[in-house]
Design brief:
Elements lengths: L2 H15 L2 E4 L5 H15 L10 H14 L3 E4 L3
Antiparallel strand pairs: 1-2
Amino acid sequence: MKVVPWITLSLLCITACSNAEWVHPNKSKDNFTLDYNKCQSESMLDPKNQQGNSYFALQATERCLGKKGWVLREKPE
C-alpha cells in the first residue's frame, strides 16, 4: 500500500497550491479529515484503485466526499 501516502501528499500539495477548500454545510473542518480518511480507505478497497494510478483513487475519494455532502469551493479572498 505505498500508493496511499502519495495520494495524501498529492492532495495536500494540490489543496495548498490552490484557492479552493472543501466545505460542508453542517460539519466543521475537523470532520473533513475524518471523512477524507474514511473515503480514502474505502476507495483503496477497489482493486482498480490499487494499481498504482493515484488519479483514479483520488477521483473515487472526491466522489465519496461529495456523497457525504462536502463541496470543493473557491476560497474567499
